[in-house]
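Posting here for the record, re: 2-acetamido-2-deoxy-beta-D-glucopyranose.
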Amino acid sequence: MLHSFAFISIVLSVSSLATAESMAFFRSSGSGCPAHYTEWASVPHAPFSAGPLRIPSMRPPPECRTFTSPAVETAISRISAQITDPDIRQLFINIMPNTLDTAIAWHAPGTKDSADYPYTFVITGDINAQWTRDSTNQLLPLLPYAAADARLNALIAGLINMQAEQIASYPFANAYKPPARSGLVPGENSWAKGDSVHPPFDLRTVFEAKFEIDSLAAFFKLSTAFWRQQQQTSNDLLDMDLWRHAITTAVELLEKLQAPTFDADQRLTDATVRFLRTANSPTESSFGGGRGNPIRRTGMVRTLFRPSDDSVIFPFLVPANAMLAVELRALADMFDQTGDAAIASRSRNLADEITRGIYAFGTVEHPKYGKVFAYEVDGYGSHLLMDDANVPSLLSLPYLGFVNATDSIYQNTRHMILSLDNPWYFSNGTSGSLSGIGSPHTGFRRAWPMSVAIQALTSDDKQDIVNAVRLLAASTAGLGLMHESINIDSVDGKSFTRPWFAWCNGVVSELITHIVAQYPGLL
Ligand SMILES: *[C@@H]1O[C@H](CO)[C@@H](O)[C@H](O)[C@H]1NC(C)=O
Ligand SMILES: *[C@@H]1O[C@H](CO)[C@@H](O)[C@H](O)[C@H]1NC(C)=O
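Prediction output follows.
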């Protein structure tokens, strides 16, 4: 009678459903559910859409889904009814609920009228760990439907409580393991055992300790978006003491990381965070004995890793600082309303210093494009001109709310990064093959569907937007789901990485939802 894969049973069966079972919530034993969603996602399932792409139906059977929201089901019906193209309609139906269908590894709904708050552990897809950045992006597109669905609202609040708990205990990590009380079997990361990291971390809670400033920005983003929405309803779902502690810890840490590498006498300052790993790729470790290449004070905050989880070359990662500035302002606006004047003013000051730093040190006069944003700088004048598909990226700056799409520095930057003058932009030249920005994370001649989606989300050219969606639909290797990267020389995206990448499914469903609302009849 107990379906081990269904979300409710995962919550209730902490003690009975011993270890190995819990994480494999698609386990089939007698249930008819696939053993793992990666398997399900690697084979096309009937029925197929009536269009030329024959997009398969990739939602797991209802009894195998990890969470079901009536409000989201209603939205899927409403939005898909407004899509005329049968291939794009089926793609949307597959990807929009992908996180709810497959990635809610654990959820405790909490009990009202007690200090028992909801908690939610959201896996990134094919890896059994929760990334702060991915999990924010996985649930944020569903926030608009939470007002009409109290269970969905508690699910999202549960993720904020989970992120707060993780960040309060160790703010330097990019990915965390499930809490012991979930009864889930944590994913293993054999690398992390050998990492030399300061301050030290606990392998029982941290999956990977790569310090990425956009993870903290992602925590701010989900929290403030949730708070804005809840203002209309009374809410007691967040553990506010824990949350305030996590936010304060993060803001204090970010202030410290504005510090230059050397003081006036060229003595080393406090590194605050260091990361070293033994690896065969330099993207996995850090320069400068783990503290990163030298920097001068610019007002920006340094990071060790990018949103791709690759190490930075120069520690001031401009798009991540831009996202941080936007989210620190949102945090300040929120604290103004809640009467926390001290933390509001610290957050706003930090946002202002970062923004001034970006314009003073993060832009470059380019001989061909004019003034552009650099991807990374160091405050000494060195800079890196490129973009990476992972958000926050330079391409996504208007999507992140840092500039308007019409901003001239952004437009110059956009022309540069969507051309072969960005070493990580890949185009095969054959019509119908996916061109776009890739990432050192997946190597040469691989474009990321996520960058194509962001390109469309930051454009107001209807033809470009439609072309982007068609290209995305035609590049799923016939599997009807978004993939991480695609070999641009493979037909229909047949050579790809990560069959189960929930974040990108979320971004593309956000794009299609946006188009249906903004340009009725276009799809
Ligand atoms: C974008 O433009 C609008 C209207 O002109 C303006 O109110 C807003 O502040 C701008 N946003 C940014 C990030 O510059
Ligand atoms: C470009 O992609 C096509 C498949 O769409 C492939 O046949 C061709 O070899 C690729 N071109 C190069 C230069 O690899």
